[in-house]
Each structure stands twice: as C-alpha cells, then as structure tokens.
Design a protein that fits this description.
Largest sheet: 9 strands, mixed
CATH class of the largest domain: Alpha Beta
CATH superfamily of the largest domain: DNA integrity scanning protein, DisA, N-terminal domain
Number of strands: 19
Number of helices: 10
Radius of gyration: 23 Å
CATH topology of the largest domain: YojJ-like (1
Structural class: alpha+beta
Strand content: 25-35%
Helix content: 25-40%
Distance between the termini: 27 Å
C-alpha cells in the first residue's frame, strides 16, 4: 500500500478472514456489515461525546448469567432484541462504557440483532496497563473495538487479529515487553538492583526471586506510564539512558532533578515489595514470584502497589511538558523537558521491526514522521544501549533502539486506550 492508498471496512474484513484462528468460534456471515457499522459509528458523536465502544458477537445463551465481573462476563439481555447499525451503537455507547462493558450482538436467521450488554469490568486492560489483578477469560469470539474516529480493532476474545487505524491495516501486535532484546538491555542493572533488594530483605530471599519481582514491577509501572500518556492524547517521549547521560552533548535536560532519595523511589518500593513478600512467604510457605505478588492481600503490598501507581502517574505527567522524560535503566528519574539529538546529524532511514527480535524488518525513510520521532531516532543512533518510547497523540506507541547497528523501531500494539 502506498502512502496515498487507504483501507476501509471491506479491506479489514478480508484481513480478519485471512487471520482468524482456526480453533475460534466461526466468524459471522455478515462480518462486513458489523465492521462497516463499527467504522461509521467511530465518526459519530453522542451529545458531543466521541463514540467509543466494544462489540461482542456471541449468542447470549453461551454466557453464564450466574456470574460477573471481576472474574467473568455478566450478560444483561434486553426484553426485546434491537436492530443493529451505527446509530444503535451510538445510542448504546454511553451505557456500555468502553473500559467496562460490551454491546452484545448475534446473527439470527441471517439478521444481526443487538441482544443487550455484557459487563466485563476493566481487568481486560491489565495486560496493557499494568496491575496486579488477574485478567478474566474471554470467549474466543469476535470482538470489535471502536477506539477513536477511523480506528477499529478486531480481536478473537482477548487476542488482537487485525486493526484499521488512520486508513492503514495491521494484522499483528507486538508486546515489546516480551522481547529478548529489551530484557537483555536491562539485565545488568536489574541484576545489580536485585542483589541489593535481596540483601536489604530481613527475611531470606534468593537473588533469582528478587530479580523476577523487580522485572515484573518495572514492566507494570512502565505499562501504566504508557497507558496514562495514551489517555492524555498529548503525546510524549520516555528515554531510558545511562546515569551519566545528563553530561552528554546529545541531550540537554531542561528540568534535571537533584540526586536525592526521591529520585530513587522505584528501587525503594521494589525493596519494600521483596521484603514484605519474603516475610509472607516464610509465614505461608508460598514461593516468592509475581503470581504471589498478584494475589497477596497483605495491606502493605496494596500500599506499595498504590505507590508504584502514583509514580507512574508522576512520570506520565512529566511527559506533558515538551521534551523527553529521562530515566536510567534502574528507573531513576533524572529529569524532564529534555532536548534530544539537537547537535546530531539527521539520519535518513530506520528499520521497522516485523517481529519481536527484528529478525524481519522493512526499511523506512524518516522524513514522513514528526520531530518527536526524528529526535528519538537521532539520539538512539548516537547513544548505544539507549531506549526511547515515543507515544503519539493518537495513542500509538513506538519503542526505538539501535539494534544490530541500525536504528530500529517496534510498534507496540497491545491494548487500547
């Protein structure tokens, strides 16, 4: 597809048919009509509110009416099913909160009908936004998400299969946090921190357990930062760089922070989590790991998790100021409002990764993106081991790194805001 070509609901339907999992519930015969209605609903407004919603295509009889959030779906059937089109979606969207409910439809005798609402709660966002709660299972059925005008995501249950955004199709979503290259870049700093965490714990804890918890906590916090920045629709950049990057000629931090304990808050919180879980593991006989962290009800863990949540909101707020937020690979906050790559020569091409390790990629020219992306490209080209996370105003997330001697980016596509 050239830059001038655009994709529409029919193209999205063809992509969904081509990528639909073989073991999932069969696609509805009127898939095209469903996607067409969702696409056109995305451009409507309800009393000046944008229309955002989720659609679940399944007969209500296949959902249990005896349970509900947070562990499962709760179907609420209308006394009489209603029709299905973009205007019905618009009318129902205020009642079916995007984060907590779905509009239920099915296909009866070849006709689409809206049978009611399915309350899900917000835990389905855990994988993208971070958090300790367990994500509830979703049936392997068609789910259509209307995110913003022209942005429609199609999933099989919780698994994304295709997306139409800005007139462009995509059929894959990379969770960059699952990549090996990102974990390897942070490994030495994380190991050093884990040794300190284990040593600081009054109860015995292995270095491996401390390392696993530190990795999990870091991922959860950064996921929350990214999700909060997406929700703000302002855009911003996070840079993970060496602690001495402040003195580099490639970066100028407008608002640097003094080296006080506040700057090292994340490490202190993780030490608290490790120590508390070690104590509770000794009392309960549980193994210290992220699963224990997710289910432990000790109020101290709840407070520490809330503190991590507040840190994520702080970092995201710093990103509202023009310039990058700069952190070390141990998540020490160095400052914000950073100008990147001001004295560096421009680069003409980057690689767009097609898989987690960029074994497959396509070259792209950089003059089609904005200043925020070009600055991140130039900085990562010069600073070995640096990682930039660029959040666009439309919610797109891009990880950038000099990977195998070439500036490479990954479109991080898990979750929706």
């Amino acid at each position: 597809m050239t830059d001038l070509e655009r994709s529409y609901p029919n193209d999205l339907a063809a992509r969904v048919c081509a990528t639909w999992p073989a073991d999932a519930r069969p696609l509805p015969r009127r898939l095209g009509a469903i996607l067409d209605a969702a696409y056109h609903a995305s451009f409507l407004r309800d009393e000046e509110r944008p229309v955002t919603l989720r659609i679940l295509v399944i007969p209500p009889s296949e959902l249990s009416a005896d349970d509900g959030p947070p562990g499962s779906l709760m179907p609420l059937q209308f006394e009489t099913p209603r029709g299905f089109d973009e205007h019905e979606l618009r009318r129902l969207s205020p009642a079916a909160s995007f984060h907590r409910a779905l509009i239920g439809i099915d296909e009866s005798q070849g006709e689409l009908r809206t049978w009611g609402l399915a309350q899900s709660g917000p835990r389905w966002l855990q994988a993208a936004r971070g958090g300790r709660a367990k994500e509830p299972p979703m049936p392997p059925s068609l789910v259509v998400r209307v995110v913003r005008p022209g942005h429609v995501v199609v999933a099989c249950g919780s698994r994304r299969v295709a997306e139409l955004r800005g007139g462009k199709l995509s059929d894959f979503a990379l969770d960059v946090f699952q990549s090996q290259w990102l974990s390897a870049l942070f490994r030495s700093e994380r190991l050093m921190a884990a040794l300190e965490d284990a040593k600081a714990s009054p109860a015995e804890v292995s270095d491996g357990a401390a390392l696993e918890l530190a990795r999990h906590a870091a991922q959860q916090m950064i996921k929350r930062v990214i999700a909060t920045m997406q929700t703000a629709h302002h855009g911003g950049t996070l840079v993970f760089a060496p602690a001495d990057c402040v003195s580099e000629r490639h970066m100028r931090i407008k608002y640097p922070f003094r080296d006080t304990p506040s700057r090292h808050r994340f490490q202190a919180l993780v030490q608290g989590i490790v120590a508390t879980l070690a104590e509770r593991a000794r009392e309960t006989g549980r193994r210290i790991d992220p699963d224990f962290y997710k289910v432990e009800t000790d109020p101290r863990i709840g407070e520490l998790d809330e503190a991590l949540f507040e840190m994520s909101h702080l970092i995201a707020s710093l990103g509202n100021v023009d310039g990058a937020v700069v952190l070390t690979r141990r998540l020490e906050i160095l400052g914000f409002g950073a100008e990147l790559g001001g004295s560096l020569p421009p680069i003409a091409h980057v690689r767009r990764a097609l898989d987690l390790e960029a074994d497959a990629f396509v070259p792209e020219v950089v003059d089609v993106v904005g200043t925020r992306h070009r600055s991140a490209y130039r900085y990562c080209a010069a600073a070995a081991g640096a990682v930039a996370v660029v959040v666009s105003q439309d919610g797109g997330v891009r990880f950038v790194n000099r990977h195998r001697d070439a500036v490479t980016y990954w479109d991080h596509g898990i979750g929706d805001d």
